[in-house]
UniProtKB/TrEMBL annotation:
The lineage of its organism: Archaea, Methanobacteriati, Methanobacteriota, Stenosarchaea group, Halobacteria. It comes from Natrinema pallidum DSM 3751. Pfam families: Pus10_C (PF21238), Pus10_THUMP_arc (PF22023). Residues 229-307 form the Pus10 THUMP domain. HAMAP family: Pus10_arch. The keyword RNA-binding applies. Responsible for synthesis of pseudouridine from uracil-54 and uracil-55 in the psi GC loop of transfer RNAs. This is tRNA pseudouridine synthase Pus10. Keywords: Isomerase, RNA-binding, tRNA processing. Its EC number is 5.4.99.25. Belongs to the pseudouridine synthase Pus10 family. The active site is at D412.
Length: 604
């Protein structure tokens, strides 16, 4: 007798007495043990099962004969009891070890209820136990016999595909999309066609394909991949790029069709992948193959956004492209890094619009509009700037629309930027060429600047270099010409410099910038300072300070807003008459790390 402790004992119907309700558990009816289920208690009596005799009932048992099927074979796993009892978690009662614990019962001509795990025994006819993975035999005189078996993933996939096909006309792509996470290396259309074929073979039905034009889910859009890709390629004509990305806007009604497809088939709403994702990939793959470029999901050179509502898919099915307004091509900026030297004073880093006319270059006079008196009609406070020297050449070299200058801080207008120079990035908007010759570009800029500005170390940079230049902590080196209000002796000068060496100063917002900076106290460190007294009232001071240190105020005290200061320590007025910045370097690491560049440094 087979008993499942603590569980439903439907097996009693098969092995103890006639079935009262006409149904019996197939495992119990077979008198078998599933190694994957909980162990069964085994009564020590000969194993028995109802025989094939059509004239007997369930309570008329016979000694079980050797099971039908090929039992003399090697053991594949512990679920195979044939010949290797040592591998079985529980043996059969008669110790013959001939009964496979993963067996099945075949019911001749009866109903099979898989969900309830039962067979109908109305006629009292069951067959002998056979090994689950033994070759399927034919019952004598009965023709083909159907063997119920445990489901596997293949059955589930076939059933899901059959349910999807039952919703209506579905093209191969839409049929395969819910299975996108299975069997990589296939397109959804290939998955869908394979599933359609499998269902037709399993059901012995005629194979009938569905074209995208007849698909109720995508409404034809899955047949437009080639046309959309060709439209994108046409839109990118004349634009040089190495990386790309494709995005798609799917009409709400099509998205609703996708939801209904899965709902009607009884599938999870997010199973597989969306049509948007498939179209991005399939169209993107075609664009990449045509242009010999690579996809980049982080920061592509170009981004093509496809609006499916912008064209009729049925018209596009017979065309090589779709209407151009359905595709929006965005060309992302390009970036050129370098360092500049400002060799003349009174040149701002960036354009400085006239404070009187606001940059318009005109003013309203007695006779109407006339040139601005303050800027002479130029619209700028200064005739030129570092930005105005550099930007036009870089933008032209990359065939861009416009450019923006980003500097690693800025020096005063009246200060020079010498020696190693100051890091900067020139951002070019909508460039149609991305690989200018940096050395040729340097020569062009320097020749045009005529000695006022120089650039050096130009390289093609990444987007991240903009943030690095603007946010990376950097220290500065300065050289200042200082004039004192009273005579200063050498000893007092040296003592004052020693006291400033390594000190942290407190600087309240200087008077000269308080109109554009918040009023607060900032602490900055003087890393190093030395100097030479050229005369009792003149000196040269060289210092290395933390970024953001106001050097002019460190010398003058700014009417006590900076403490300590050179003027305060010497107890006399002090003023910077000329200032040069001689170095801008990263605090912890240099600006120029390879990770922030798109090219290799040139050997110069």
């Amino acid at each position: 007798m087979i008993v499942r402790p603590g569980l439903d004992e439907r097996g009693d119907d098969a092995l103890r007495e006639p079935c009262r309700d006409g149904e019996a558990d197939i495992v119990s009816a077979a008198g078998v043990n599933h190694a994957d289920n909980v162990p069964l208690e085994i009564d020590e009596r000969p194993a028995a099962v109802a025989g094939i005799d059509r004239g007997i009932g369930l309570n008329d048992t016979r000694e079980r004969e050797r099971p039908v099927g090929e039992l003399e074979r090697s053991v594949d796993a512990t679920d195979d009891a044939c010949g290797q009892r040592s591998l079985e978690p529980v043996g059969v009662a008669d110790r013959s070890d001939l009964l496979a614990d993963d067996g099945v019962v075949l019911a001749q001509g009866q109903r099979w209820y898989f969900a309830r795990n039962v067979i109908d025994l109305e006629d009292g006819q069951i067959a002998v136990v056979v090994a689950a993975d033994a070759p399927v035999p034919r019952a004598p005189g009965e023709g083909k016999t159907c063997y119920p078996r445990l489901p596997d993933a293949r059955d589930m996939i076939t059933e899901d595909a059959r349910a999807l096909l039952a919703t209506g006309a579905v093209c191969d792509s839409c049929l395969g999309r819910p299975f996108a996470e299975r069997s990589f290396g296939l397109t959804n259309a290939e998955r869908g066609r394979a599933l359609r074929t499998t269902v037709a073979l399993a059901d012995d039905d005629d194979f009938e394909s569905t074209e995208p034009a007849d698909c109720w889910v995508c409404e034809g859009y899955c047949g437009t991949f080639d046309a959309v890709a060709e439209t994108i390629v046409d839109a990118l004509e004349g634009t040089a790029f190495a990386t790309y990305q494709v995005g798609t806007r799917v009409p709400p009604l099509v998205e609703e069709n996708e939801r209904l497809l899965r709902e009607d088939a009884g599938l999870e709403p997010d199973v597989g992948e969306s049509m948007k994702r498939e179209l991005n990939r399939e169209v993107g793959r075609r664009v990449g193959a045509t242009t010999d470029t690579e996809v980049d999901f982080d920061r592509p050179d170009v981004l093509a956004v496809v609006d499916l509502a912008g064209f009729d898919p049925l018209e596009a099915l017979g065309s090589e492209s779709v209407t151009g307004h359905a595709v929006d091509v965005q060309i992302n900026p390009a970036f050129v890094y370098g360092r500049y030297r400002k060799l003349e004073r009174d040149i701002p880093q960036t354009e400085w619009p006239c404070r009187e006319c606001g940059g318009s270059g005109s003013q309203l006079g007695d006779d109407g509009e006339e040139p601005c008196d303050y800027c002479g009609g130029s619209g700028y406070m200064y005739d030129t700037s570092v930005e105005q020297v550099v930007r036009p050449h870089v933008v032209d070299a990359m065939d861009g629309d416009e450019g923006t200058f980003h500097g690693a801080g800025r020096e005063d207008v009246d200060a020079r930027m010498l020696e190693g120079g100051r890091p900067f990035v020139l951002e070019v908007k909508r460039p149609r060429f991305r690989d200018p010759d940096p050395e040729a570009l340097e020569r062009e800029i320097n020749d045009a600047a005529e000695g006022a500005v120089e650039v050096d170390g130009l390289r093609l940079a990444t987007y991240e270099m903009v943030e690095r230049v603007k946010e990376h902590d950097a220290s500065k080196h300065y050289r200042a010409a200082v004039e004192f209000g009273n005579a200063v002796d050498e000893a007092a000068f040296e003592t004052a410099l020693d006291e400033l060496e390594g000190t942290t100063v407190e600087q309240y917002t200087p008077e000269r910038v308080d109109h554009r900076r918040a009023g607060l106290t900032r602490e900055r460190t003087v890393y190093g300072i030395d100097g030479d007294l050229r005369s009792p009232t003149e000196a040269e001071v060289r210092l290395h300070g933390e970024g953001g240190l106001y050097v002019k105020e460190l010398i003058s005290s700014d009417n006590g807003r900076t403490e300590p200061s050179l003027a305060g320590l010497l107890e006399t007025e002090a003023e910077v008459t000329a200032l040069d910045v001689t170095g801008v370097e990263g605090e912890d690491e240099p600006f120029e790390l390879d990770a922030y560049f798109r090219d290799e440094p040139s050997e110069r």
